[in-house]
Amino acid sequence: MGIGVSIFLLAVGAILTFAVEAEVAGIDLDVVGLILMAVGALGLVMTLLVWGPRRRVARVERSVVPQREVVEERRVYDDPAL
Length: 82
Known about the structure:
The protein is mainly α. The chain has a domain at about 5-55. The chain has helices at about 5-20, 30-55. The longest helix is centred in the middle third of the chain and has 27 residues, at about 30-55. The model has no long low-confidence stretch (mean pLDDT about 80).
């Protein structure tokens, strides 16, 4: 269950619990709403804690660069006065 489905279940459960005043024979809509909110909250926690860290793992590729030899260059000029 993803984050979107969890939030959807929370919203539907809250609507059934707090906003709907209808009565259905044999079904208590307040209890159904509370169950949906509990399942949505549990799904949200599971998504964030269990499956969330796996998606954040990144591979790091390292390349080895050989060290270059330092070459020092000297220029020697003849003195024309000699």
